[in-house]
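Q: Please design a sequence for this.
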């Protein structure tokens, strides 16, 4: 699958909030190489909500709620704290550990989306945690393949509302 299929399922935003992303600078600041499909997603869609429920973190917005660098630092720190207190509920390693989780999004319901990293960013997969910890799902898919399969109803996540993909898909620009 590719972002091209996703583009047919999820109409583009009215305006983009990501014009001219300097990916080499973003990756330098994060000290991590990001997957190409993520960069293509942000370049095409910018910042916003998928079906009013999933937000993919972006380097293009400044607020700590939406910014990839700022929010990932917060979520990594929070995960470490929760893992120390409740190791059975947070069994994954966290970045920068080898094969550690790195945040890539969150849900309106308080859940978090992570990449499970490895040496090759094109092989990163998705882990989604429900709010409150102790519940997670792992998908051996790239971020855009994960979103595409959700919209096609080829996968159903218990971390998302049952009707997540029932209606026509919509990407709402964060600034709308």
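A: Design:
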């Amino acid at each position: 699958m590719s972002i091209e299929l996703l583009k047919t399922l999820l109409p583009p935003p009215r305006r983009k909030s990501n014009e001219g992303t300097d990916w080499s600078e973003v990756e330098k600041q994060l000290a991590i190489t990001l997957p190409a499909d993520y960069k293509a997603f942000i370049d095409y869609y910018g910042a916003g909500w998928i079906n009013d429920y999933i937000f993919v973190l972006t380097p293009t917005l400044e607020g700590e709620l939406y910014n990839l660098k700022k929010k990932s630092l917060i979520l990594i720190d929070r995960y470490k704290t929760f893992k120390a207190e409740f190791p059975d509920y947070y069994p994954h390693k966290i970045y920068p550990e080898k094969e550690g989780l790195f945040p890539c999004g969150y849900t309106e319901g308080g859940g978090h989306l992570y990449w499970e990293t490895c040496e090759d960013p094109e092989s990163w997969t998705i882990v989604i945690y429900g709010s409150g910890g102790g519940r997670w799902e792992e998908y051996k898919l790239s971020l855009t393949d994960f979103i595409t399969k959700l919209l096609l109803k080829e996968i159903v996540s218990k971390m998302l509302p049952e009707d997540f993909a029932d209606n026509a898909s919509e990407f709402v620009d964060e600034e709308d």
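Q: Thanks. Anything notable?
A: The chain has a mean pLDDT of 91. The two ends are 29 Å apart (CA to CA).
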